[in-house]
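Protein Record: Sequence and Backbone Structure Tokens
======================================================
Scope: a single protein chain, as residues and as a discrete description of its fold.
Tokens: labelled as protein backbone structure tokens, with as many entries as the chain has residues.
Position: the record begins directly beneath this header, with no further notes in between.
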Amino acid sequence: MAEDTRILVVDDEEEFVVYLAWLLKETNRFEVDVAYSGKKALEMMEDKEYALLVTDVRMPGMDGMELTLKVRDKRPDMPIIVMTGYPSRKYPENSFNLGSITYIVKPFQVEDFIKLVSTILDDEKQTKET
């Protein structure tokens, strides 16, 4: 698979992130890696290029907002989806201010999530081609 289909999903809830990665892989469109912490995600990003980052907000150690900020410093153009199971007014605003392109609340409809990821990556691919 091409580099423009590689996704990194970050969440400290291991069962959830493995399930989400499996769903994305089942589309046969995406290569998916998982990380269980923001620190591990940054390490993985040193070794591979990712077309999309999907991160949870609430994680021990480095949370999703801090991860988003650090990724923005290195990859200002990388699309980022921020997700949380603990919705709050501050999270969407903060995530957009830090440069995420969308914010979703867990639980979400799997079909909607896959469609969102597909749309974002298709848009990114078209942008790069023009």
Summary: Residues 110-129 form the longest helix (20 residues). The beta strands are 6-10, 31-35, 52-56, 80-84, 102-105. Residues 3-123 form a domain with the Rossmann fold fold (CATH 3.40.50.2300). The two ends are 21 Å apart (CA to CA).
